[in-house]
Amino acid sequence: MKNILSILAAAAVVFLFSLTPLAAEEKNAAAPAPAAPAAETKAEAPAPATEAPAAAKTEESSGGGIGKNIYNIGRGVVNVGTCWMEVFRCMLYRNAEAPFFGFIAGACEGAGFTVMRAFTGVTDILFLGFEPGNIFEPRFSEFVWESPWMPEKKLQFATPVLPQD
After folding, report:
1. What average pLDDT values come out for the chain (165 residues) when binned by 10 residues?
2. How deeply is 95 buried, as exposed, middle or buried, from its count of CB atoms within 10 A (0-12, 13-18, 19+)?
3. 92 CA to centre of own chain
4. How distant is the alpha carbon of residue 159 from its chain centre?
C-alpha cells in the first residue's frame, strides 16, 4: 500500500510539473507578433495590441495554471478535514430560525452538507484540482468557515413580547 501511494504521489508531481511549460507557451502565443513594415500594419496594429492584454487579463482573472490546481487540491484536503463541522453549523443556523426544532432539522441538513463537503473534497483531490464546474454558492461556500453560521437578523427567532395589563 505504501508503494502504491508513493507511485501515485510521484505521478501527480510529474503531471503537475509537466503543465508549467504549457502555461509558458500560452503566454508566448498571446504576445503580439513582431512588427512588420509600417505601411502594412497601420490598420492591423491595434488588433494584436488589444488582444494581448485581454488574453493576459483573462488568464490572471481565472487564476489558471498550476497555482489554481494546487489551491483546489488544498481546498479538497481542508474540506475533507472540516466536513464534520457542517453538522454544528447547520444546527446553529436552523436553531436561530426555529428554536428546538432547528436542532433536529439542522442536524439532518448538516449531515447532508457533511456528505457534500466531503464529496467535493475527495473529488478535488482525485481530479488533481481540475474542476469541471463550480458547485459552491453563498449557502455552501468553498470552506466551512465562509458559509453563514447565523441567518440575517430579520430571519432569526425573536421571543414574543406579551402585552402587560
Report:
1. 60 48 48 52 47 47 72 92 94 89 92 94 89 75 88 75 79
2. buried
3. 24
4. 38
| Residue of 107, 114, 117, 118 lying closest to 141 (CA atoms) | 117
pLDDT for the residue numbered 109: 93
| The amino acid at 110 | G
Query: Is 17 within 8 Å of 24 (Cβ atoms)?
Result: no
Report residue 144 as a C-alpha cell.
466551512
H helix runs in the chain, sequence order: 2-18, 20-30, 38-41, 46-62, 66-82, 85-97, 101-126
Residue 161: alpha-carbon gap to chain centroid: 44
Dihedral over Cα of 108, 114, 120, 122: its sign: negative
Whether 91 and 110 have beta carbons less than 8 Å apart is answered as yes
Among positive and negative, which fits the CA dihedral 41, 44, 48, 50? positive
